[in-house]
Amino acid sequence: MDYYSLYQSTIFDSSSYDKVDICTKHQDTITGIIQIYKFIVTSSYDKSIKFWDIQKQVCHKKISRAHNKKIECLLKLNNSSFMSYQQDFLFFWSCRQMKLVKKICIVDLEYNPQYEICTKFNQYILINTVHQDQVFCVDTLNGTSQNEQFENFPNRISSFISLDENFFAVGYNKIIIYEFNTKLAKQNIEYTKKGYDELSLIKLNKELIVAGSMHGYIFIANWKQGTILSNLYNNGPLVKQLLLIKNKEQKQQYILSINRDRSLQIWDLKSKKQIQTYFMDRQPHIFHIYNNSKILSADKIREEVQIRQLKFSV
After folding, report:
1. What's the pLDDT band for 253 if we cut at 50, 70, 90?
2. Do residues 134 and 170 touch, judged by C-beta distance below 8 A?
């Protein structure tokens, strides 16, 4: 069967990677995978959005012309709504009603798809721009948007996360902690000085974040104090992305490291040990953790969502 031409979404078993079922289709590169309510929502360059159920393997609804241009990404807003993004508009959707609620024009944003990164911060959507020191801020309540000046804000970042009601962090060569109201950089956290870097960031709790580097190291930092507490490893696989997994039964947290050699490593934060490794036949560009029990991924060629079951060997 030619998976490259069928553009099918398939479910894989983690132990053998054998295909076990097919649940949905897209006709171009998948650009977003998020979980909201009981659904998985996917978007694609084919301008469509799909709502589907992994357990029942049913596509509940397909919105064929959700956008009039390529959908660049999806962003979860809360447990019942999400945003989809194209070059000049933000679209806001209700997941329960499976319909568009409103859209906001962002034509003033100088778009650069190679470095486009966005995050939700309180009532705002923050979008990185091509200009040094500037962040494009969209107020989702009144629909206004404008460029805001932030102190020493880099024009090329690799990670953008909200920390609390007052602070957010960006990652590139180092981690910079910004206070939104003052637009000032409050902390600079730097682990190594190897030149250009791409740091992937995730928030652990009210004070701690984890960073993974394209130079092959992962470290834990206290963002309020601006200090590095410990590292998981040095000189390992080059990190592409980090995701957080919570095992509620064991009341433990794990880090999923997605690496540039196509390996996926699971790290136990309590023992700081690697407990499991997967290898993938292609390099996916989008990942999502479903119910802390499955890894969802999509690459740029096969236009399919692959799902692998997590198994903890602790």
Report:
1. confident
2. no
